[in-house]
Predict the structure of D-arabinose dehydrogenase [NAD(P)+] heavy chain.
Amino acid sequence: MSEKLNATKVNYKLNNGKTMPALGFGTFCAPEDQSIVKDCVIAAVKAGYRHIDTAYLYQDEKAIGDALQELFKEGVVKREELFITTKVWPNFWDKVEESFSTSLKNLQLEYVDLVLQHWPLCYPKITDNETGYIVFTPTDDQGNIMEEKDASYLETYKQLEKIYLDENDHRIRSIGVSNYTVDNLKDLFRDPTIQTCPSVNQIAIHPGKPQNEIVDYCQEKGIVVTGYTPYGSQGGPALKLPLIKQLSEKLDMSVNEVVISYFLNRNLVIIPRTWKTERLPQSLHYKKLPKEIIEQISNVKIDFE
Ligand SMILES: NC(=O)C1=CN([C@@H]2O[C@H](COP(=O)(O)OP(=O)(O)OC[C@H]3O[C@@H](n4cnc5c(N)ncnc54)[C@H](O)[C@@H]3O)[C@@H](O)[C@H]2O)C=CC1
Ligand SMILES: O=C1O[C@H](CO)[C@@H](O)[C@@H]1O
């Protein structure tokens, strides 16, 4: 039986020469008590995580920034040892500077390692009259999501690229996309005003949802793929699948480690999330797996998205 390996030590080379840790800490669905976010980020870094995945949408960047400041002050890690990702939500499709500079300020950093266009979509920027907050997913009277007319989602990538390529601006180390299909990427490659190839595409991947077509396309183009919702999101349904439990026993790993192994054997980045620090040790290791097991996990039948 193959030995357990430390997933926090695995890095991938991006198409611009930078390195990206294969295991990241997801931070969606933050609890209302933001001190939990801060404590979990500190615990994740102390456990070995060197990559944190956040977004303007998640509204937890300030707590993550507080955690990072504490880790730097205590000498646990240096800034250059961490890889921090944030994202630009579709309300800011043509206001990337506004979104990104707010994220950077909240994260209390001088630079971010990776900024992603969160979705290939353009939403209007509407403020709720009562709360004063941005309506992240605006809907009309019939409940349909409102999209900006005559707007091009490539505009967001172009604005990100402008900041990234500016020689006098050192705030973004790499840029990428999220939720891009093969057609979206082909659109991007066809645009003669775009000079770069995204370094990363972050998409939904978990057991039973292998996303082979887009993964193969990205890997052929040298784009690193990050899989989100690796445990199947809320409640971790992928961890409860009979196949994953059987493999956990057979391979002498936690169910989480089986899923991490599935990702790392496919050269994918994985960004699982937990808001319970005691669960962190279950999501740190992986093993080399034979192709047949990868295929079994890819093809398992699931009843969740
Ligand atoms: N780019 C995008 O559009 C999206 C990106 N993401 C990113 O991906 C990350 C991961 O996805 P999530 O939706 O957060 O879900 P996930 O797939 O990481 O699963 C989280 C669930 O698994 C449970 N879990 C974790 N460890 C466990 C353990 N040891 N035992 C039992 N249960 C456990 C958690 O309690 C939680 O309910 C996000 O936090 C976010 O950073 C998520 C959704 C969309
Ligand atoms: O990051 C994200 O999380 C939510 C829920 O999955 C999704 O809308 C967004 O892309």
Q: What stands out?
A: The pocket of NAI (ligand 1) is lined by residues 26-29, 53, 118, 178-179, 202, 228-236, 239, 256, 271-274, 279, 282 (CB under 6 Å). The radius of gyration is 19 Å. The chain has a mean pLDDT of 98.
